[in-house]
Amino acid sequence: MPIIKVPVAPIFGLVSSDDHRKIQRRLLARYLKENVNKKKKQKNPLELTEEFIQDFNDSLKTEREEKYIELAKKMLARCKRRSGLTTLGCGKYVDLPLAWTEAIMLSQCKGEINEEALEILLISLDHAPVATDHIPILFFISESILYKLCYDAVKKPYLFSCEIKFSKLGFLVLLRLLLVHFFDCQNFSEEQKFRLHTGLKALAACEACYRHYPNILFMVNFMLKAGETICERVILSESSITPHEDLEEEQKEFDGTRFIAMLKNGSC
């Protein structure tokens, strides 16, 4: 029986095998690119990222402002639920490390969102239970707070409400770390202690900026002393080397004009 060979016409026309492979690679690259774009479009709109924080701050006083404020408020509501503000930090849906991370990130947003995020963090840190699994996030928050305190102290001539809240947050965070250090015999990592000590040294250098605000100065001094115990290292501050007579002289210089300026800036 004779064998009949049927000619096969290439679907790509008369092209070499090398050109055929190049076309396949080009089609595959286009397919992958289209799929990546689809995945990006399906991203969760309530995902909290550094990119969202930047977009939020850039959207202020533009037509996109209302949209981003609405998204941020939904994130704040989720953060409140995860913080367990009405259940003293306990409950099925409570995730304190995640909630605190979201709150400290949202505090980078400008305006009303910043104030609400700090309030959530203050309330939660004040009444939530102390646990060793909170240690990493507590060190992260302490570094963020110390940076803000030192940066604001240098840049601003007067005390602002955000500095008061940050000092309270620093007090609560260092208090929690100190309790863990005392009662759980927790050995913090050397990297954690080194990074905290670095931030506290910067705070000690800015301590003089708060000498006219007794409540804030008390919390700053507590943070420094608690940090010395946690880090097991001495932190030299101006108050520890300034003669008592100099401090009395500085107190005499504090007059009513500075107090009036404090009232105008909402620091009292």
Biggest pleated-sheet summary:
none
Number of strands: 0
Instruction: Give the percentage of residues in beta strands.
Output: under 5%
Q: What Rg, in angstroms, do the CA atoms define?
A: 28 Å
Organism: Anolis carolinensis
Protein name: Transmembrane protein 232
InterPro entries: TMEM232
Features:
268 residues, mainly alpha, 2 domains, elongated
Concise overview:
The chain is mostly helical and 268 residues long.
Describe the protein in words.
This protein has helices at residues 17-41, 50-59, 65-83, 96-106, 112-127, 135-155, 161-183, 190-205, 214-231, 238-241, 244-253, 256-264. The chain is an all-alpha fold and 268 residues long. The model is unreliable at 241-260 (pLDDT under 50). The termini are far apart. It folds into 2 domains: 47-129, no CATH class; 136-268. It comes from Anolis carolinensis. InterPro entries: TMEM232 (IPR031747). This is Transmembrane protein 232.
Give the arrangement of secondary structure elements.
Layout: H1 17-41, H2 50-59, H3 65-83, H4 96-106, H5 112-127, H6 135-155, H7 161-183, H8 190-205, H9 214-231, H10 238-241, H11 244-253, H12 256-264
